[in-house]
Please model this.
Amino acid sequence: MIFYKGAVRSCISACLLALLSACVTPPAPEVELAPAAAASRPAPGKAPSPPEAVTAETTPPPIVAADAPSLLAGETAKEFEQGKASWYGPRFNGRRTASGERYNMHELTAAHKTLPFGTVVRVRSLVNGKEVDVRITDRGPFSRGRVIDLSRAAAESIGMLGLGVKDVLLLVPDSTSPVAQAQRPPVKKISRPASRAPGQSAR
Model:
C-alpha cells in the first residue's frame, strides 16, 4: 500500500514538471545585423573618423557664361575701326617692315596706319564672322577706304585669300590708344631745269 502511494506521487510530480516546462517561453533568437549597419557602427573604444575633406580635385570647375566676352591680350576687347582689309604676300616676304622686323607672310602680323607697333588687334570678318588676332609690325595700307593690311597667314585664317579685299571690324585691348601717326611713303621730287629766257645760252 505504501509502495502504491509512492508511485502515484511520483507520477503526479512528473506530470506537473512536464506542464511547467511546456509553459515556459523560449528566448528570442538573436537577430544578426546587416553588413551595412554593422559596418556603420564604430568599433568599441574607437572614435568615429571625421568626414572626408573636399579637395581641389573633387571641386567642380566654375561655370562660365556662354556669352562671356573673350579677352584680347589679357584685356577686354573694344571696337576700334571698321573698313576694308587687304593682304600682302610673296612679293613682300622677307622685306624689312617699318618696325624694323622682316615681313614673314606665314606669321599673324599686319600693317596699320596709326596703331603702335606690337599692338595686338582682333580682325573680325563682316562677311563670315571669322576672327584672327594679329600683331602690328608695319605701316599701311594707304589706299582709300582700307584700314588694315594682313599677312597672308592672317588673311587665310578669315577666308579672304580669294576675295582680296574684305569688310572687317577691328578690335583692340581696352587700354590701347592710337598714338602713332600715319607714315606715308616719301614722295620723290623730280628736279627740273630752270627755264631760260629766249636767246639765253646755258652755262
Notes: Residues 2-23 form the longest helix (22 residues). Residues 155 and 174 are 24 Å apart (CA to CA). The domain at 71-173 is CATH 2.40.40.10 (Barwin-like endoglucanases).
